[in-house]
Amino acid sequence: MPLKKEIVWRVGVIYIFMLAFAFLIIGKIFYLQIVEGGKWKDQAQSLTLKDITIESNRGDILASDGRLLASSVPYYEIRMDTRSTGMDNATFNSNIDSLANNLSALFRDKSAAAYKSELVKARKKGERFHLIKRRVNFNQLKKLKTFPILRLGQYKGGFIALQTNMRIQPHVSLAQRTIGYTTKGEGGNVVGIEGAFDNELKGVEGVRLMQRLNGNVWMPVHDGNEVEPKDGMDVVTTIDVNIQDVAESALRRQLVRHEADHGTAVLMEVSTGKIKAIVNLERNSRGQYKESYNYAIGESRAPGSTFKLASMIALLEDGFVDLGDTVNTGNGVIQYYDKKIRDTKRGGHGVLNVQEIFEVSSNVGISKLVTDYYTGKEEKFINRLYGMNLNNRLGIKIKGEGEPEIKYPGDKLWSGVTLPQMSIGYEVRLTPLQTLTFYNAIANNGKMVKPQFVEGLMYHGNWVKTFDTEVLKQSICSRSTLRKVKIMLKGVVERGTARNLKNNNYKIAGKTGTAQIANEVSGYTDKSKISYQASFAGYFPADNPKYSCIVVVNTPSLKDYYGSLVAGPVFREISDKVYATNFEIHEGLAKANDDEEIEAKIPYTKNSYKDELKYVLVDLGIGVNDDDAVSDWVITTKLDSCVKLGNRQITQNLMPNVKGMGVKDAVYILENMNLSIELHGRGTILKQSISPGTRIKKGDLVVLEMSFN
Fold this sequence. Notes:
about 700 residues; alpha+beta; Penicillin-binding protein 2a (Domain 2); Beta-lactamase; 4 domains; 7-stranded mixed sheet; 6-stranded antiparallel sheet; 23 helices
């Protein structure tokens, strides 16, 4: 073949091949654009645009008086669209120095030059979502909105603020486990009130369209189709912060004193079941006591002697005994098969009547009565316990309630010693809250009400829903039995095992409990490994009950482990606080006739700050004569009809007279004068080491001696 033809043939083949390839590409483009165009456009959009969920503002959890127990604090992530369509070069260049200076002054993390360099580089790169600062608080956000460039908003100033919320508890450990916390696992929020009312607290989430930019960052697209989130509702609890604080402090001191493993204390309003305080403290590896588990709700254990109340009710209801019937408890030891039951008193109590058996908490006496009358009729005894609702959970909304255990004859673990053991609070299981609910029913004239942790729901300050008291059982026993057990419960404090709780101001009724806790391996056989649980459950004032309370201390030191010595003092401290701060509880005021005038006794008052003192006295309806008082700080004089206020001048560089003042006021004055202070005792200040009117200088030490050591 001639060379020319060969070249033409080869060129033709290449040409035809290239032409076919071109047609193939054109065909593919046509197919992608026309046939599958919609599919690929949708996929491309899905990769660059997406709807994201906007978190709603979670509602607050409040104490009964409105104080915050848990709240969401907003924090913001601040970004800048350095290529915002409304931002021109003149605006950016003329204001960048001022913006950098303001950012440096506000956050104090970089120099103004560093901020300027960073923002200039971001604009050159065309960054649409440049990060300026994370975790910015609301006050900082308000200042940022006034800064040059940023104050022009998103379109002209490129300002972008993304909100995130952080949950905090202002009172830190106060009722921490009962308040609960939020979790994000598969199980959702299940802890405490946060978990029980999660749906109400979390509100309704919103939706926002976001666009992906270079660097895989996402920026909001305001297309007018956003769905705004709806705030969650506030949950108003029944908790009284002041009583809660007292209960926690009292329990913590007792746990530390007795080197206990953990403890709980709960205060309930008798008629409503409202929980006014609930404390759960456990010792951690560093020896500190923290709220890590809700023992009041979740720990189901043998209650010990507090359960003897149920045994007595059964005996009285069935007509087997009366308060004056006598029982010979012998030398304080009785044997049932291979089990010996003992009284705590060495040598025993001898002959006791039924009331005395309960008051001194005789294990022998109670077990003899129950076995004598219910042997062969065990079902009758258990049915009585079931009739008091002791075998059922309370059904509270907070998750994790322990399962009560009351065996029934014929159960796998029922034995010959089960009946006498159950009679004194063993081989049964109850949580502290279940035990308290039972005692509260006695105080409430037999009506058992469900413990209530939440009063209602509010939305933006308005009540949405309130929760009424829920009755679990109208009556757990007859009126006759109720009257008799109330006599016995008062007798425990008046003459029995809790005599240390007796006081002259008001009467307490209740029952001590001291239960052995079996070792997981050796059970009760190895005495060296047995620990104890001390408890006291009761109510006050005994003659007109307003509050019921239970205190349980687990594994105190072996030196003192009885309920009266370990749990009783915590109960007394809580009840004293409630009695002192609740005027309705005082019999004198409650019994006054409507038309009877009660003459207000003029109280002793400490020298104090005039405005605060006057506010308190006026609020209490006590007369005040301040005609001659022109100074901020005043001295007080008690007159027949009022408190007279006199001047107390404070002069700079001269030692003031702080005698007759309380510590808070005195320390405030002296610290503002730059003095060092040493305090001895408590109460009202009686002596000061530097005489009034003496010239003083910064750092001088003044020793203050108070009225009580």
